[in-house]
Amino acid sequence: MSVRISYFCMPTTTVNDVDLYYERTGDGQPIVFLHGVMMGSRFFLEQRTLPEEYESITLDFRGHGRSAKSETGHTLPTYAADLEAFLDDQELEHVVLVGWSMGALVGWEYVDRFGTDRLDGFVVVDQQPADLQQEGYEHGVFDLAELIDLMELAQTDHHALAHAFIDGMIHGDPEPDHERLMFDEIARVPPAIKSAILFDQSVRDYRDVLDSVDVPTLICVGEDDALVDPAGVVSIADSTPHATIERFSDSSHCPFLEEPDAFTDALLRFADGCQ
What are the TM regions of this chain, as residue ranges (predicted)? Predict the structure, then answer.
């Protein structure tokens, strides 16, 4: 009779002079989950425990969740450098990287800066390569004036900003427990950090990085999305060498919360094919 030994730890580790909070459960192939802007790793509560052949790893970016609220470094290049330092600190290789929303942008920044040697696969969850409307790009989700309004709201009423994001992230009415979780995670991020990273991630453009993602890529699309353009998410496949698409008809921006069983099944099928 074999006995599986697993562990559940909730430590912080110091990388690039900042304490980052993370959780690791299981002892199989590592799947690392990256959360969205102003969000946190608790959004992946349904994926914390995976079958025994996988290890679930969640990480709070600096300034988010239960990581240190550093005054500086709130740019996607710094977050990507933190991710590389974290993977090195934890001695992680053959990683399936799951980037949701801003987490996908961090993933593209990571590939651009550090390549794909550590990665066996990349999962993009509901994010197009650029958010800002611009000439020649039909998938932008807001213009500069709307971004300025969001930045102002972050400084004048960051709780109202949280509710504005929650209203667009869930298909239909969110479950009370999920709504409380989302608000709690967003409210943890200080307004100054909200403004800094919201602006930085909103003006980045990773269209020229897509063809550098030379590992298997799964693109997860919430088809009832109120925050991003589903067509813009799907269009990633045209420029990503080894991409497949998984659609979630009953999800907006958070298929891992809205359709957790379907999302996890799709993720594990993909991860199994990456081994």
Answer: none
* 26: confidence class by pLDDT, cuts 50, 70, 90: very high
**Cα separation of 105 and 237, whole Å?**
15
Residue 6 confidence (pLDDT): 44
Domain limits at 211?
Answer: 8-274
Query: What CATH code is carried by the domain that includes residue 148?
Result: 3.40.50.1820
User: What token pair was written down for 215?
Assistant: 């590992």
How far apart, in Å, are the Cα atoms of 158 and each of 30, 149, 184, 186, 239? 34, 12, 12, 9, 36
pLDDT tens-digit map of 27-65: 899 999 999 999 999 999 999 989 989 999 999 999 999
Helices (H), the chain: 76-89, 102-114, 144-156, 158-169, 176-187, 191-202, 230-234, 255-258, 260-274
Is pLDDT above 90 for 124?
yes
Domain membership flag for residue 25: yes
pLDDT score of 133: 93
pLDDT at 8 over 70: no
Diameter of the chain by CA atoms? 64
Any domain includes 3: no
* Burial annotation 109-132 (CB, 10 A radius, 16+ → b, else e): bbbbeeebebbbbbbbbbbbbbbb
Residue 209 inside a domain? The answer is yes
d(Cα 29, Cα 203) in Å, to the nearest integer? 34
Catalytic residues: 101, 224, 253
Domain total of the chain = 1
- The tokens describing 16, both together, are 């690039």
Residue 174 has pLDDT above 80, yes or no: no
Residue 140 has pLDDT above 80, yes or no: yes
